[in-house]
Amino acid sequence: MASGTLRAQFWRMEAATHRFEAHTGEVQVELRAPDLPGLYREAALALAEVMAPGATCGADAAAEEVEVEARDPAALLVEWIDELIYRVDVTGKVYPSIEVESADGRRLRARVRGCVPERFKTAVKAATFHDLAIRETEDGYSAHLVLDV
């Protein structure tokens, strides 16, 4: 098997994912998704996991509409996560239930459901522009996002 073929099979994206990487004084999240709305959704799920691992909301959790705008896809990612952090600070809820209705790189509309977790693990102050990059790949999108904790 040619190495190019192996590489293509290894990176074929079947579902959105996220993983955490060590980063001095902060949390760096590597995100991958088949499309841009999925990337923003995965970032929100990663935020909820960092703040309150395992938090889930019941079907009766009230839906909240969220709309954010920014100059480009990377700035939109920061604006989106900062909006969710703001909502956590104001309501005491985390938002592990996310439906991104539309995201075109400059505007994002979503429906989120929040719940008060049993306990918070990590407070997140903000998303940062440090080493922020969103890349379009053959299989979708990838991004590195640093959270200030």
Describe it for me?
The chain is an alpha+beta fold. The protein has a single domain (37-148), classed as 3-Layer(bab) Sandwich (Archease, Possible Chaperone, Chain: A, domain 1), CATH 3.55.10.10. The protein is built from 3 helices and 8 strands; from the N terminus they run H-E-E-H-E-H-E-E-E-E-E. The strands form 2 sheets. Strands 1, 2, 6, 7 and 8 form a 5-stranded antiparallel sheet that branches. A hairpin with a 3-residue loop joins strand 4 and strand 5 (107-115). Helix 2 (36-51) packs parallel to helix 3 (73-91).
Which residues form runs of ≥5 with pLDDT under 50? 1-11
CATH-defined architecture: 3-Layer(bab) Sandwich
What's the overall geometry? globular
Would you tell me which CATH topology applies? Answer: Archease, Possible Chaperone, Chain: A, domain 1
Number of helices: 3
Number of strands: 8
Sequence of secondary-structure elements:
HEEHEHEEEEE
Strand content: 35-45%
